Automatic annotation (TrEMBL):
The gene is CSN12. GO terms for biological process: poly(A)+ mRNA export from nucleus; post-transcriptional tethering of RNA polymerase II gene DNA at nuclear periphery; transcription elongation by RNA polymerase II. InterPro entries: Csn12-like (IPR045114), PCI_dom (IPR000717), WH-like_DNA-bd_sf (IPR036388). It comes from the Eukaryota. This is COP9 signalosome (CSN) subunit. Residues 224-409 form the PCI domain. GO terms for molecular function: double-stranded DNA binding; RNA binding. Belongs to the CSN12 family.
C-alpha cells in the first residue's frame, strides 16, 4: 500500500493533477489491485500504512479514508460482510475523504491543477453512493426507495460546484472555474436520478451569475453533457423550441464514435422533432434498433395520417411505461396533433388541393379513424389545429366549408420521416 501513497506524494510534489486523479480512481485496475492488498480496512490500520509516505496534512488523512473505501470494496475483508454493508461503509469512507479534499481544494490558490482530482473523487463517490442505496433497496425491498447516500452525495457535489464557480483567483488561466461544467454534469445527473429536478434551476442561476469563460471554451465533453441536460429540462418544462435547440447542439458536438451518448440524445430529440413537424434523419432509426422499436410505429402513423395506429401505439402498455420512464409521454401525446394534421393534409390533397374544402370528407376521415366523435367533434378538432398554427385558414361554419390559405396551408405536415 505504500506504493499508492508514494504515487500520491510524487504527484503532489509536481502538482500533477491528471496523474494524481488516475492514482485516486477506483475505476482503474491498478488502483483496485493496490487497495485490494489491505486486509484490515480500519482507519487506524490504514493510517499506519500511509504514514511512511510522509504525505502533508490533510492529504494523509484524505488518502487514508480513500484507501479504506477501496479496501472495503475490493479487499479480502469483503468476504466477511454482506454486500450492502460493504457498500454502505465504503460510501461513508469516501464521503469523509471528499469532505477533507473539498476543504483543501477550496483553500488552494491557484487550484486548477487539482480539478482532475476533484472530478475523479466525486465520480467515485457518486458511483459508490448509488451502489450503496441500490444494495440497501435490494435487501429492504422498500417501495419508498429512500436514497440517503445519494442525497448526501448531491450535497457534496454541490459544494464541489460552488468551489469551482465561485473561485476568485485573479488569473483565469489557473482558475478553478474551469472545473465548473464538469461538476454541473455530475450534479445534474444526480438530481435527475433523485427526481429533484427543480434543484437544477439553482445551478443554472449560479452559472448565470458566475463570471465564467464562454461555454465553447470548455472541453467538448462537458459542453455536450450540459446541453443534453438543459435540453431535457426544457422538455420537462414544455419549452420544446429550446429543448430542440439544446439537444440538436449536443448531437452536433457528440463524437460520432460515441454511439451510447448519441442514442441518449436522440431518445429525447426524436419526439421533439416529431412534435414540431420537423424532418428526422432516416439513419437514426436504422442505426439504433431500440429507438426504432420505440418510435417507428408513431413515425409511420404520422407519415400516413393514421390516427388510429398512433393511438394504438400510445396505448400499448410496454410503450407507455417506456415513454413515462423517459419523461417524453406528454410530448408524444401532443405529437398526435401532427398525425391529425397529416390526415387532414391527405384528405385535402385527394380533394384537389383547393383553397375551399368541404368539411364533410375531413370529418368522415377523422370519425372513421376514431379521432373524433361526430361531425361537431371533427369540426372542433380542425379548429384546434388552426388555433395551434398547424392549419392556416378559417372555418365557414354556416356553409360547412374550410377556407385555406393559398400559401402553405399545412406548414407542419410535410414530413418525410422514414
Amino acid at each position: 500500500m505504500s506504493s499508492l501513497a508514494r504515487d500520491v506524494a510524487a504527484s503532489l510534489a509536481r502538482e500533477d493533477g491528471a496523474l494524481l486523479a488516475r492514482a485516486l480512481s477506483l475505476q482503474t485496475g491498478n488502483t483496485r489491485r493496490k487497495v485490494a492488498t489491505v486486509a484490515d480496512p480500519s482507519l487506524s490500520t490504514v493510517q499506519a500504512l500511509v504514514r511512511p509516505a510522509r504525505l502533508p496534512a490533510p492529504w494523509d488523512d484524505m488518502v487514508a479514508h480513500y484507501i479504506c473505501a477501496g479496501a472495503l470494496l475490493f479487499g479480502p475483508s469483503t468476504k466477511t460482510r454482506k454486500p450492502a454493508e460493504s457498500w454502505h461503509l465504503a460510501a461513508e469512507a469516501l464521503q469523509a475523504c471528499t469532505s477533507v479534499f473539498l476543504r483543501l481544494f477550496a483553500a488552494l490558490s491557484p487550484g486548477r491543477w487539482a480539478i482532475p482530482v476533484l472530478v475523479s473523487l466525486l465520480r467515485d463517490l457518486r458511483w459508490t453512493a448509488k451502489c450503496a442505496d441500490d444494495a440497501a433497496h435490494a435487501v429492504a425491498r422498500d417501495a419508498r426507495r429512500a436514497n440517503p447516500h445519494m442525497e448526501e452525495c448531491a450535497r457534496t457535489l454541490n459544494r464541489g460546484f460552488s468551489a469551482c464557480v465561485a473561485d476568485r483567483y485573479p488569473s483565469l488561466a489557473q482558475s478553478k472555474k474551469w472545473g465548473t461544467y464538469a461538476m454541473v454534469g455530475l450534479v445534474f445527473r444526480t438530481y435527475f436520478q433523485l427526481q429533484s429536478i427543480s434543484l437544477c434551476k439553482n445551478i443554472l442561476r449560479a452559472l448565470g451569475a458566475g463570471d465564467l469563460p464562454p461555454l465553447e471554451a470548455f472541453p467538448k465533453a462537458h459542453v455536450v453533457t450540459f446541453r443534453y441536460y438543459v435540453g431535457r429540462l426544457a422538455l420537462l418544462e414544455e419549452d420544446y423550441g429550446r429543448a430542440e435547440s439544446e439537444l440538436s447542439q449536443a448531437l452536433a458536438l457528440a463524437p460520432r464514435a460515441s454511439t451510447k451518448h448519441i442514442e441518449r440524445i436522440l431518445v429525447y430529440l426524436i419526439p421533439i422533432r416529431l412534435l414540431q413537424g420537423q424532418q428526422l434523419a432516416p439513419r437514426w432509426l436504422a442505426e439504433y434498433p431500440r429507438l426504432a422499436q420505440l418510435y417507428a410505429p408513431f413515425l409511420r402513423a404520422c407519415q400516413r395520417g393514421d390516427v388510429r395506429a398512433f393511438d394504438e401505439a400510445l396505448r400499448d402498455a410496454a410503450v407507455e411505461r417506456a415513454l413515462v420512464h423517459l419523461g417524453v409521454y406528454l410530448a408524444m401525446e401532443r405529437a398526435r396533433d401532427v398525425c391529425v394534421t397529416c390526415l387532414l393534409r391527405r384528405v385535402w390533397a385527394l380533394s384537389g388541393r383547393g383553397t375551399r374544402q368541404r368539411l364533410g370528407p375531413m370529418a368522415a376521415a377523422l370519425q372513421w379513424l376514431g379521432a373524433a366523435d361526430g361531425a361537431d367533434g371533427a369540426e372542433w378538432l380542425v379548429a384546434t389545429q388552426m388555433a395551434r398554427g398547424r392549419v392556416k385558414g378559417y372555418i365557414a361554419h354556416e356553409r360547412q366549408m374550410l377556407v385555406l390559405s393559398a400559401n402553405e396551408p399545412f406548414p407542419h405536415a410535410s414530413l418525410s420521416m422514414l
